[in-house]
């Protein structure tokens, strides 16, 4: 294994892609997160890159992601461009020996993810952290600790709900799976320390608030290698807000995420509590924690958190689920052999 490259002092970060997600990462890294500062920003829309760079002292807008990766002041890279661009950018960062934080999905197909796994394996050290931020959420962490401690006995079932108020107009037929349920797929693997072996997709009557070509809501039914059954409701046009639920049923009890609202309001004969507007709101603490860990890992030269392999495994399950959506039948999930780097 090759020696690690540490970064002395403040990490100079280059952010590629400053749409919704990238802009949030840039804001966090450029303002207040200790040990990092944003030195370069790129976006397919140069005006947008310039506008974001202006809000970050010391950052400049560059025309392309390749320029960001090559810039001498850039020690590490955030890739938050659209998924189709990830492979090329992450490969370039690996080739330059620069650590990368890559938003999910790691790449659009399992084959593309495997090429990244191969490049990282050839480099001899982990350089990539994938943005599965839920692993840093206080609720999910507590849930995993309870399962690990045997508090509910061996897990048997898992029930998950993933609801968004509305999906963007560009949401494709597969995106409720590849973009939204991708988080639950990762959480199932991480929480149960197991792999998904089979997946089926059930499509109920379509909501009148969903576009005609979007199967919304839908339900993913997964079976893990150990035989745990997982159901995930994905409803990306639920209208009322952003809601995430998760319950693990074990042999002697259950453990679930508690409500994340801070207050209950009693008024005019009702008890109410607020619902998050979207994931930036619901998972704000998780985003802070994942980037803090990334910066720490860059400084000590050892990548941590969700790996390229995790990105690949999630993509493999999502691909099988997309097949199941079209066929209406259960699809097996085949995984490649896991390289030693990810043991
Ligand atoms: C979005 O891309 C995310 O990553 C959010 O966390 C998720 O809840 C949403 O459904 C996705 O579209």
What would you say this structure looks like, in words?
The protein is α/β, with parallel strands linked by helices and 343 residues long. It has helices at residues 20-30, 46-54, 65-70, 86-95, 110-123, 138-148, 175-192, 279-282, 284-300, 308-327; strands at 11-16, 36-42, 60-62, 76-79, 100-102, 128-130, 155-163, 196-202, 218-224, 229-235, 243-250, 254-256, 265-267, 270-272, 331-332. The radius of gyration is 20 Å and the shape is globular. The mean pLDDT is 96. (2R,3S,4s,5R,6S)-2,3,4,5,6-pentahydroxycyclohexanone (ISE) binds next to helix 7.
List its salient traits.
343 residues, alpha/beta, 15 strands, 35% helix, globular, binds (2R,3S,4s,5R,6S)-2,3,4,5,6-pentahydroxycyclohexanone
Describe this structure in a few short sentences.
The chain has helices at residues 20-30, 46-54, 65-70, 86-95, 110-123, 138-148, 175-192, 279-282, 284-300, 308-327, and strands spanning 11-16, 36-42, 60-62, 76-79, 100-102, 128-130, 155-163, 196-202, 218-224, 229-235, 243-250, 254-256, 265-267, 270-272, 331-332. With 343 residues, it is α/β, with parallel strands linked by helices.
Topology:
Blueprint: E1 11-16, H1 20-30, E2 36-42, H2 46-54, E3 60-62, H3 65-70, E4 76-79, H4 86-95, E5 100-102, H5 110-123, E6 128-130, H6 138-148, E7 155-163, H7 175-192, E8 196-202, E9 218-224, E10 229-235, E11 243-250, E12 254-256, E13 265-267, E14 270-272, H8 279-282, H9 284-300, H10 308-327, E15 331-332
Parallel strand pairs: 1-2, 1-4, 2-3, 4-5, 5-6, 7-10
Antiparallel strand pairs: 7-11, 8-9, 8-15, 9-10, 11-12, 13-14
The structure holds (2R,3S,4s,5R,6S)-2,3,4,5,6-pentahydroxycyclohexanone.
């Amino acid at each position: 294994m090759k020696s690690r490259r540490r970064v002395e002092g403040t990490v100079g970060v280059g952010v590629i892609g400053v749409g919704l997600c990238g802009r949030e990462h840039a804001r966090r890294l450029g303002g207040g997160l200790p040990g990092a500062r944003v030195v370069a920003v790129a976006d397919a829309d140069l005006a947008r890159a310039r506008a974001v760079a202006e809000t970050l002292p010391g950052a400049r807008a560059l025309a392309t992601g390749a320029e960001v990766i090559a810039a001498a002041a850039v020690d590490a890279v955030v890739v938050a461009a659209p998924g189709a661009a990830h492979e090329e950018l992450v490969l370039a960062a690996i080739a330059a020996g620069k650590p990368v934080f890559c938003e999910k999905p790691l790449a659009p197909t399992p084959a593309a993810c495997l090429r990244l796994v191969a490049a990282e394996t050839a480099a001899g050290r982990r350089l990539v952290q994938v943005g599965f931020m839920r692993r840093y959420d206080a609720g999910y962490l507590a849930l995993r600790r309870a399962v690990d401690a045997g508090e509910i006995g061996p897990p048997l079932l898992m029930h998950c709900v993933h609801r968004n108020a509305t999906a963007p107009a560009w949401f494709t037929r597969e995106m409720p799976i590849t973009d939204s349920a991708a988080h639950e797929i990762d959480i199932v693997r991480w929480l149960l320390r197991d792999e998904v072996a089979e997946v089926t997709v059930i499509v109920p009557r379509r909501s009148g608030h969903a576009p005609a070509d979007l199967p919304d809501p839908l339900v993913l039914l997964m079976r893990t290698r150990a035989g745990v059954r997982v159901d995930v409701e994905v409803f990306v046009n639920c209208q009322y807000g952003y809601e995430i639920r998760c319950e693990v049923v074990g042999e002697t009890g259950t453990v679930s995420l508690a409500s994340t609202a801070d207050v209950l309001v009693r008024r005019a004969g009702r008890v109410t509590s607020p619902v998050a507007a979207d994931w930036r709101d619901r998972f704000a603490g998780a985003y802070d924690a994942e980037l803090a860990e990334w910066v720490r890992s860059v400084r000590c030269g050892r990548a941590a958190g969700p790996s390229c392999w995790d990105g690949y495994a999630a993509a493999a399950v999502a691909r099988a689920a997309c097949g199941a959506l079209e066929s209406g039948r259960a699809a097996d999930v085949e995984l490649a052999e896991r390289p030693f780097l990810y043991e």
